[in-house]
Write a structure and sequence with these properties.
The complex is a heterodimer of chains A (479) and B (377).
Chain A lengths: L1 H11 L4 E2 L2 H5 L15 E3 L4 H14 L3 E4 L16 E4 L6 E5 L4 E4 L5 H8 L3 E2 L12 H7 L6 H4 L6 E7 L5 E5 L10 H5 L8 E8 L1 E2 L3 E9 L2 H13 L6 E6 H11 L9 E9 L1 H17 L2 E6 L3 H12 L1 H4 L6 E4 L2 E2 L5 H15 L3 E6 L4 E8 L5 H17 L18 H4 L2 H14 L28 H4 L7
Parallel strand pairs in A: 2-4, 3-4
Antiparallel strand pairs in A: 1-2, 5-6, 6-10, 7-11, 8-9, 8-10, 12-14, 12-15, 13-14, 13-18, 16-19, 17-19, 18-19
Helix pairs in contact in A: 1-3, 8-10, 8-13, 9-11, 13-14
Chain B lengths: L3 E2 L6 E3 L3 H14 L3 E4 L16 E4 L6 E5 L4 E5 L4 H9 L3 E2 L11 H7 L6 H4 L2 H4 E7 L5 E5 L11 H5 L8 E8 L1 E2 L5 E7 L2 H12 L7 E6 L5 E7 L4 H12 L5 E5 L3 H9 L7 E6 L5 H10 L3 E5 L4 E6 L4 H8 L4 E4 L4 H6 L9 H10 L11
Parallel strand pairs in B: 2-4, 3-4
Antiparallel strand pairs in B: 1-2, 5-6, 6-10, 7-11, 8-9, 8-10, 12-14, 12-15, 13-14, 13-17, 16-18, 16-19, 17-18
Classes of the chains: A alpha+beta (479), B alpha+beta (377).
Chain lengths: 479, 377
Amino acid sequence: MSALIGDLRVICGEANVYTDADRVRTYESDGLLQYAATPRAVVLPASGEQVQRVVAACARAQVPWVARGAGSGLSGGALPVQDGVLIALSRMRRVLEVDLPNQRVTVEPGVTNVAVSAAVGPSHFYPPDPSSQIVCSIGGNVAENSGGAHCFKYGFTTNYVTGLDVVLADGELVRLGGKELDLPGYDLLGAFVGSEGTLGVAISITLRVIPSPEAVKCMVAFFAAVDDAAEAVSAVVSAGVVPGAIEMMDALTIEASEHATHHGFPADAAAALIIELDGSAAECEARFDEVVALCQQHGATGVRIAADEAERALFWRARKAAFASMGRMASNYFVQDGVIPRTKLPAVLAEISELSERFGLRVGNVFHAGDGNLHPLVLYDGPGQAEQAEALSAEILAACVRAGGSITGEHGVGVDKKKSMPLMFSEPDLATFQRLRCAWDPAGLANPGKVMPTPRLCGEVPGPYRQHPLEAAGLAERM
Amino acid sequence: MSPTALPDAPGAQAPADREQAAALLADCSAAGHAVRLRGGGSKLSWGRTGAVPALELATSGLDRVVEHNEGDFTAVLEAGVPVAAAQERFAAVGQMLALDPPDGGATMGGLFATADSGPLRHRYGGPRDLIVGATVALSDGTLARSGGKVIKNVAGYDLAKLFTGAFGTLGLIVEVAVRLHPRPRGTVTVVAEADDAVAVAAAAALLAHSPLEMESLDVAWSAAGAGRVLARFGGLVAGEKAESALAVLHPHPVQARVQEDDDELWAVQRAGQRRPEGCVVRVSALPAQLAELMGLAQSLGGELVGRAALGVSWIALPALEPEQLEALRGRFAACVLLDGPPELRAALDPWGHEPSVLAERVRARFDPTTTCNAGLL
């Protein structure tokens, strides 16, 4: 290990390799603070070439590594491997090429999500917009296939990545896709996006960007019952309207975010729907009246239309501050990230409400209603309630899967949800996932211990048997 | 029920369900027999030419629409369901699977295995963008599901995308889950014509960068050197948007008009992607290379249709020499020979691209016995 650290210092410079306990400890968790692991070293490469050399050095030393962008993820996907190497990409923040005629931008992985839109604006923009967009990195977005409020209409990260330069776990550099579409061969790009850092690390990312909408109109509709709001969502979508965003907040979330943002939403509303239409001015205008009417038909008690950009920004602050402002309601909370078919919204929300009563814990609901991506926030106070809160959170997830949904819509499986993977996938399904992993990283060095519920090793190990480091550490067993 | 033997091909079998399909693959793999996978047979000649395996697995028995969740705009369909039959069913409730390649009797499985696409890709993306889950049968008899049936889901690896466009070389797609969209009401198309390739490409680029949301944005360029841009608008204000498009194009040297009854225009665009009695080359280019590509297509005596904002075009020709294709390949990221006579296919690599080491490692993990559609991709 000390030889590896020496190599890392040669590659990235003394100042960019941290090994002292105090500095390394600041990297022990990502955005999901209930998990922590201390890496042996944190290395901050300045270029793709340095990343490649770092990964190759780890491969030679057979030391597992984890790549991290901003570390804002909520599934423990960028949790370090104990005594492994953490590769922090935060210094790689260059925009490499802006090619507006071809609607492409190429960036390094540490560039933030908002910086991509800034690089191509105002004429164009990059649609995926996770709530953490001012800090989260594109490299992390690629790893997690991040979504955001506008993805019901515009799609997810995977729909916008056209090319990647990826360093594989053996240190080899491969190019997947490019600026052009339909290149021959397997869609390895599609397999890589959303693979949570387990197939390699992207050092250069080419993204498709699109023309900015001509007009944006935003409204908030208030409802006396959550069910009414859910019905309104279905009515809007069934009418053929594809809103830029359609987000729901329940009473608890409205109250919490009022403290943080002073949005002035009515205190007695059981639910608020933020609906944004964007596109051509003519279409926004025509559709907007239709949406307002549909909300009213489904029991909206009031509608507030953003009069200007400042008010629209306020609506979005209210929504995007929802997680953070929950800190005012309770000392701790778990964020869940389940998905259900949209038509199951009323039934599953009722089930969550029953679970909340049964466990005696409050649950705030704020979510991307258009695509049925729920973010229930399970509130609790102090470590005494943590176990109960976690159990409640797990029950909510099981309800989502029973309704035909998914255990994660955008936060990823990471370390937090790998135990839930068998809710959705059978043993043959999981073994088939493993085939993909083994093709890319047979030694299992890239972000091991994530995604798969039971870590396992790949077959066909060339040469005589020798014990794998993960086996030695009791983290995995041979298939 | 035992697998049905197809009368027209002694070595052909049509499993009645996915378990039979998986068992058949496992038997063949164990016996060392290669298998050709077949959906509607509309693109059977695409890909690398090789010895045609003695055994063919047809998906015609896997023909159930498993779910059509109208309110959720999703559907789950077995591989052998004809695309046209599925679309008819979706259309009955004002919905569509937003994929419109030339049909030719294609099945859902074949559509995704070949990742073929049509003009709707402009707005809705290609097969990879609309598939949300898949069940596949592997050559060792494994049946495995990935993804789900909701439109948003990041649990597990995205094997549905990996199998999309893999031409069956990783295994057989037995079922797909797809996202649907509302079928736009009342479409109109702006047609802008010119006999100057630069003017056509410039008009297309102008629309591609405008905030007017189009269903489709295509170009066409004839062997005689006449071209047009086609921009299709749908929905409540389609007419108003078309008028805005005319205004955008107004100062440019193109003859632009609005056509209301526009289905035939788009049927022609789709048809331009196939030439079973001749050759079709699909070119992956940058949108900024469009004018150059139209000129080259004309110099080869070909006709071009293309997705202007995406940079993907199809050149249909009566005939093509290997060195002409090689010359094209020197200028663009990829030029794939789709339709083409056997002697031409034998003289060159239709993909113009060797599988990467990583791609081969992936293939070997999924189909270690090289049982499924060996060597096709």
